[in-house]
Specification:
Elements: E1 14-16, E2 22-24, E3 26-27, H1 38-47, H2 60-79, E4 87-92, H3 95-106, E5 113-117, H4 126-131, E6 134-137, H5 147-156, E7 161-167, H6 179-188, E8 192-196, E9 219-223, E10 234-239, H7 240-244, E11 256-260, E12 263-266, H8 280-296, H9 298-317, E13 322-325, E14 339-344, H10 349-360, E15 362-363, E16 365-367, H11 372-379, H12 383-394, E17 404-408, H13 415-429
Parallel strand pairs: 3-15, 5-6, 5-7, 7-8, 8-9
Antiparallel strand pairs: 1-2, 4-10, 9-10, 11-12, 13-14, 14-17, 16-17
The structure holds 4'-deoxy-4'-aminopyridoxal-5'-phosphate (PMP).
4'-deoxy-4'-aminopyridoxal-5'-phosphate is lined by residues 32, 94-96, 121, 123-124, 167, 171, 196, 198-199, 223, 234, 370.
Catalytic activity: (sulfur carrier)-H + L-cysteine = (sulfur carrier)-SH + L-alanine
GO molecular function, one term: lyase activity
Keywords: Aminotransferase, Lyase, Pyridoxal phosphate, Transferase
């Protein structure tokens, strides 16, 4: 961490707390967004005087921008071990937009389904429910994917499941899914696989595998703002042959070869799927972030984050009355990320998160983490409790929402930060809470 922290923007900042003291800020909300790498911002700064609209202009800057943009695709493809003869990169603003793009394009027939799972972020759940007929693979009590159920469903709907859409890793329990095993199963039963790598990409290497490998990934999606690049760019790596079919989901400039009064010919991928002027700076940032991962070494990142997770779980388990969702075993850190979701008995999640912020300068997240069905399953919310809570919400009462607290590590976090976090949790448990908090019923905020 000492070597990596200088590479990160803003990890040494102090923020005000209720006591008036300025405290060094601890960001344990990396699963939402990470801070930027300095080399990414340096690359952006270097490029700023040179950027211009791509593809259309003949000027020097336009040609340079086009070159840079095309180069970023090469970097992304190479990083994901994709095959340029089969694959291309379609950029969009984030994972959500790109999953929606695939979903709109897929167009299953009346008797076809998309199989997804009960552990998805809403971004890899709702697009399938909205545009396709969706089936769901169940999870076990702890929230781990039920591989038997996956096989059962693929078998039962053989030939009728067009796509298996699953997360590479959960943003709630941190569980890493066996995507290659799942890919093999999906292909065996005639389905393709899409991996939502929004959480996987910042923590593990990405590998599409060769197309003739039964374990290959057909679609891979991730976001720049979770891999230490600023907001505004996501990448979809997909089959050129798939993208060649059908109509682009958005039409306008850049997506056509010919337009006349009463017809238009779509251009080839990836341009066909990037209507309007693209975010060249965002693409540069995303690609540079991937290079920085390679410069640091993924193995270094993996080991450091495992160490943090092991350490945090050991310490958290010592706190009486803590419930950790998913695995709480410090020895089981190989197939999980440094994402730890928990509750403290007797303390409302939003309260804990407010005390952590305003008294301890520790940023976590609370609520349902855009994975309502999954979290409610982990919390064992009964149908009656669920109905009562939905009724309260409809009446505008946001004060007692099912939820939990999530801490999530980045590569720059340290054991000292975890120690401060553990002390803060102990203080809360011992009612060493200085501020007076009242919840605003309308907004649910403290
Ligand atoms: N999938 C997962 C697993 C995520 O954690 C997130 C972000 N929280 C998303 C998808 C959506 O990413 P974005 O907000 O960048 O579209």
């Amino acid at each position: 961490a000492e070597k990596i922290r200088p590479l990160i923007i803003g990890c040494e900042q102090k923020v005000p707390t209720l006591s008036g003291e300025m405290k060094p800020y601890i960001n344990f909300d990396n699963a939402a967004s990470t801070p930027s790498f300095k080399p990414v911002l340096e690359a952006i700064n270097q490029f700023m005087p040179w950027y211009s609209s791509i593809h259309r202009g003949a000027g020097f800057k336009s040609q340079l921008s086009t070159l840079v943009y095309d180069k970023t695709r090469e970097i992304v493809l190479q990083y994901c071990k994709a095959e340029p003869q089969f694959h291309t990169v379609v950029y969009g603003k984030n994972t959500t937009e790109l999953v929606n793009k695939v979903s709109k394009r897929l167009m299953t027939a009346d008797d076809e389904f998309v199989l997804t799972t009960r552990m998805e972020h809403h971004s890899n759940d709702l697009p399938w429910r909205y545009h396709q007929k969706a089936l769901f693979v169940e999870v076990d009590e702890k929230g781990r994917l039920d591989l038997e159920d996956l096989r059962r469903k693929l078998k039962a709907y053989k030939g009728k499941i067009k796509l298996l859409a699953m997360t590479g890793a959960s943003n709630v329990t941190g569980y890493i899914n066996p995507i290659y095993q799942a890919a093999q199963m999906a292909h065996e039963y005639g389905a393709q696989i899409l991996v939502d790598a929004a959480q996987l990409a910042p923590h593990r290497p990405l590998d599409m595998k060769a197309q003739d490998d039964p374990q290959h990934i057909d679609f891979l999606v991730f976001s720049g703002h979770k891999i230490y690049a600023p907001f505004g760019q996501g990448a979809l790596i997909a089959d050129i042959a798939f993208l060649e079919q059908g109509m682009p989901d958005q039409v306008g400039g850049g997506v056509i070869d010919i337009v006349d009064n009463d017809y238009a010919y779509w251009t080839s991928p990836p341009d066909k799927d990037e209507a309007g002027t693209p975010n060249v700076v965002g693409a540069l940032a995303l690609a540079r972030a991937l290079q920085v991962f390679q410069e640091i070494g993924l193995d270094v990142i993996v080991e450091h984050e495992k160490e943090l997770t092991r350490y945090a779980l050991q310490k958290m388990k010592e706190i009486p009355g803590i419930t950790i969702y998913g695995s709480d075993d410090p020895q089981e850190v190989d197939d999980r990320l440094g994402v730890i979701t928990f509750n403290l008995d007797g303390y409302y999640h939003a309260f804990v998160s407010a005390v952590l912020t305003y008294e301890h300068a520790i940023g976590v997240r609370n609520g349902c983490f855009c994975a309502h069905p999954y979290l409610k399953r982990l919390l064992k919310v009964t149908p009656e409790q669920n109905a009562a809570f939905e009724q309260r919400l409809k009446e505008g009462d946001h004060s007692d929402i099912p939820g939990a607290i999530r801490m999530s590590f980045g590569i720059y976090n340290t054991k000292q930060e975890i120690d401060r976090f553990i002390q803060a949790l102990k203080d809360i448990k011992n009612n060493k809470i200085a501020g007076l908090y009242r919840q605003n019923k309308a907004t649910g905020e403290f």
